[in-house]
DNA sequence: TAGGGTTTT
């Protein structure tokens, strides 16, 4: 989520949840700072909590291969520790210190900040590397990168031999790539004992990382092992014993990984709870917001709700309620914040309010970690979040409103204490806490892991079931991924990568179904078009839905509509963008298209076309013969096939599951030209919705995917 | 018939 262009800092936001001062973090490539600024930098660095522990940290890293930093926000760990390491000589002899971040924006802006403190030009001694954007040289000594980017580098250099230290920052977020990285780093350690690993994690989760590096045998899920016995009021479900647990006893080498606690700089946040649960969360939010507004004179309010619909209703009710305020009372200016907004609407959140006006930001989970807004004094927390989960049996995703974990609640409350003492109003009774999980289940246990499995295979890790996962995906999840990759032709009967298909699929940064389609697309005579379709299906929110004018948006979208379905409609929109709007965000705005998303699709398409060239796959256009594209899509999306029912609903071909067309599909308002369709994915919210739907012929399914349905039959 | 939490290669 980029709210600002790289090279600038968003107004009122901060980079690292650490100390950032606006003047010095501001735009452009930093020049070499003068002597006076250098002194100021060194004083500011010296005041950070981590400065006191500099020598202790360096000593521990000499002695221990793995150091876990348990650190609340505001310690300066992301900016300072890499500098300590640099000063202590860990980047001598051409070696480099890598620091991973789960998000692009963080990798870029922290690198900027550190380059400035070090007094170098960004991209030289200190640099960054994220997809489509890198500013570094082979001589770079401190490199900030996304965790996905470092994982990709392992595919090229399996021992990460150019790095002396790898610091995994924000590890508690447990992104899938962070988890993969941890497993592989532990493996690399055995071959490269001199490699140093630093894991930085928020408070609750830190012990889990120590345990992970100190255990000698892989073990299955320990989702909640971060609690000390005395704190364990929320008993976790018993960890499942995996088959290898029974064979071998754990023998922890206790000095492998050590933990260091760092003091934060956060201000205290007082927490308040409701006495009774509420049945109308939006109304309770509005009441609480106005209660704060009338009782407390200053300070902005951050509200956490679950989704766009709730946020819009909340804003509407705040506007209604505002009319009832006593005359002369200060006003409220409320802003929505979620990922579907246009860039302009997102930036509005950072602007200071007019005098005598209080800012209220009504946000999804995006404000929990991805976006930091300064000046928040009050947090109003619904205690709920929408979490995605993947069902390996049906192959479908669900997006379900769930109570937050305790870690999540703590993180949200902390948003009120960044600049002064704050207060957090949790809109549920305190008694509900004991039913909550300590931490959110890692992403890797809730997602389709086919691509990750493919990439691990490509690293030469043959036995995926015995990989040392920090938290193992369920065996159903693993088995399904293996079975599906076999059906796609990426794995052979022994589970080895096929050549060249499987090897190439592991390299491509797109969904395995789509990568199979792309790699075969020349034989269908439409690789040019499939490149675009693949790029378009890997970006979200191409059609803008915000600003309340949904009818206009709908009318604009219909201008691109193609009868054959959503994939070809996306192709159409992309081609129009290239023709008219590539350099004009105005053209996009007029047609309710997301300029940023389409520009990203362009970058992805360019990247994918480079892969095709390297694989010697010719880029051929099918012209106006769109049936070729639909046939080609069928060859990879065969698992996702459905057939229309007389009542307008669909049944999946594979299991006969009831499916609905998502309202964003062109087939929501018109009937497809044939009764069979393929779709990109199913998301279950209020119903099971098919997204990105394209009409196909039944014969194609038999011709191009007969093997899959036969395979499924014989297994039963 | 009426809807999408967030992130990444």
Question: What features would you describe in this structure?
Answer:
The protein has 716 residues and is an alpha/beta fold. It folds into 4 domains: 220 residues, Rossmann fold (3-Layer(aba) Sandwich); 173 residues, P-loop containing nucleotide triphosphate hydrolases (Rossmann fold); 66 residues, Orthogonal Bundle (Arc Repressor Mutant, subunit A); 198 residues, Four Helix Bundle (Hemerythrin (Met), subunit A). 38% of the residues lie in helices and 17% in strands. It contains 25 helices and 21 strands. The strands form 3 sheets. An 8-stranded mixed sheet has the order 4-3-5-2-6-7-1-8, sandwiched between helices. Strand 17 and strand 18 form a beta hairpin. Helix 17 packs across helix 18 and helix 18 packs antiparallel against helix 19. The longest helix has 20 residues. The N terminus and C terminus are likely disordered. It binds one DNA strand of 9 nucleotides through helix 6, helix 13 and strand 14. Belongs to the DEAD box helicase family. DEAH subfamily. It is an enzyme of class 3 (hydrolase). InterPro entries: DEAD-box_helicase_OB_fold, DEAD/DEAH_box_helicase_dom, DNA/RNA_helicase_DEAH_CS, HA2_WH, Helicase-assoc_dom, Helicase_ATP-bd, Helicase_C-like, P-loop_NTPase. It comes from Rhodotorula toruloides. GO terms for molecular function: ATP binding; hydrolase activity; RNA binding; RNA helicase activity.
């Amino acid at each position: 989520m980029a709210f600002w262009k790289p090279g600038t800092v968003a107004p009122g936001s901060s980079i690292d949840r650490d100390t950032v001062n606006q003047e010095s973090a501001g735009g452009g490539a930093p020049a070499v700072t003068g002597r006076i600024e250098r002194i100021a930098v060194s004083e500011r660095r010296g005041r950070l909590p981590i400065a006191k522990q500099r020598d202790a940290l360096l000593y521990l890293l000499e002695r221990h291969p793995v150091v876990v930093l348990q650190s609340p926000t505001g310690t300066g760990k992301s900016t300072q520790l890499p500098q300590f390491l640099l000063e202590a000589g860990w980047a001598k002899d051409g070696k480099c210190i890598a620091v991973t971040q789960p998000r692009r924006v963080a990798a870029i802006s922290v690198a900027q900040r550190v380059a400035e403190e070090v007094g170098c030009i960004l991209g030289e001694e200190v640099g960054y590397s994220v997809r489509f954007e890198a500013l570094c040289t082979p001589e770079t000594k401190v490199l900030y990168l996304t965790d996905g980017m470092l994982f990709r580098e392992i595919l090229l250099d399996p021992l990460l031999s150019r790095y002396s230290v790898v610091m995994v920052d924000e590890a508690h977020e447990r992104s899938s790539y962070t988890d993969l990285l941890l497993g592989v780093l532990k493996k690399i350690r055995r071959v490269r004992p001199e490699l140093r690993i630093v894991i930085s994690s928020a408070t609750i989760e830190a012990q889990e990382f120590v345990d992970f590096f100190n255990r000698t045998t892989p073990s299955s899920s320990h989702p909640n092992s971060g609690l000390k016995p005395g704190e364990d009021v929320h008993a976790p479900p018993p960890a499942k014993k995996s088959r290898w647990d029974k064979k071998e006893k754990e023998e922890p080498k206790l000095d492998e990984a050590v933990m260091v606690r760092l003091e934060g700089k956060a201000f205290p946040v007082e927490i308040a709870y409701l006495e009774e649960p509420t049945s109308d969360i939006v109304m309770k939010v509005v009441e609480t917001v106005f209660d704060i507004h009338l009782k407390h004179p200053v300070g902005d309010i951050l509200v956490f709700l679950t989704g766009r619909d709730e946020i819009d209703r909340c804003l509407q009710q705040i506007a209604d309620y505002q009319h009832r305020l006593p005359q002369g009372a200060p006003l409220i200016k409320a802003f929505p914040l979620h990922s579907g907004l246009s860039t302009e609407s997102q930036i509005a959140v950072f602007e200071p309010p007019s005098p005598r006006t209080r800012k209220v930001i009504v946000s999804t989970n995006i404000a929990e970690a991805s976006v930091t807004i300064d000046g928040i004094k009050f947090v109003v927390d619904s205690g709920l979040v929408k979490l995605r989960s993947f069902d390996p049996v049906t192959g479908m995703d669900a997006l379900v409103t769930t109570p937050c974990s305790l870690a999540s609640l703590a993180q949200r409350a902390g948003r009120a204490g960044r600049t002064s003492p704050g207060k957090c109003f949790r809109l549920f009774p305190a008694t509900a806490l004991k039913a909550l999980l300590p931490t959110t289940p890692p992403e890797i246990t809730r997602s389709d892991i086919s691509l990750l499995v493919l990439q691990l295979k490509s690293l030469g890790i043959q036995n995926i079931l015995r990989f040392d996962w920090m938290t193992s995906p369920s065996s159903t999840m693993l088995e399904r991924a293996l079975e599906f990759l076999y059906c796609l032709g990426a794995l052979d009967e022994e589970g080895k990568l096929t050549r060249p298909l499987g090897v190439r699929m592991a390299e491509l940064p797109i969904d395995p179904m789509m990568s199979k389609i792309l790699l075969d697309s020349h034989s269908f005579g439409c690789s040019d078009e499939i490149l675009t379709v693949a790029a378009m299906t890997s970006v979200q929110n191409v059609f803008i839905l915000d600003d309340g004018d949904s009818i206009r948006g709908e009318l604009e979208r219909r201008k691109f509509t193609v009868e054959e379905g959503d994939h070809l409609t996306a192709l159409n929109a992309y081609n129009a963008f290239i023709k008219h709007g590539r350099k004009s965000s105005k053209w996009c705005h007029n047609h309710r298209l997301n300029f940023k998303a389409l520009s990203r699709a362009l970058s992805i398409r360019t990247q994918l076309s480079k892969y095709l060239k390297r694989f010697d796959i010719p880029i051929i256009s099918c012209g106006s013969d769109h049936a070729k594209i639909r046939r080609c899509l069928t060859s990879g999306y065969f698992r996702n096939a459905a057939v229309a029912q007389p009542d307008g609903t669909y049944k999946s071909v594979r299991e006969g599951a009831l499916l609905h067309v998502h309202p964003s599909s062109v087939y929501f308002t018109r009937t497809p030209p044939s009764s069979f369709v393929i779709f990109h994915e199913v998301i279950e919210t209020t119903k099971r919705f098919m997204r990105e739907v394209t009409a196909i012929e039944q014969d194609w399914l038999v011709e191009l995917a007969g093997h899959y349905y036969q395979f499924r039959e014989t297994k039963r």
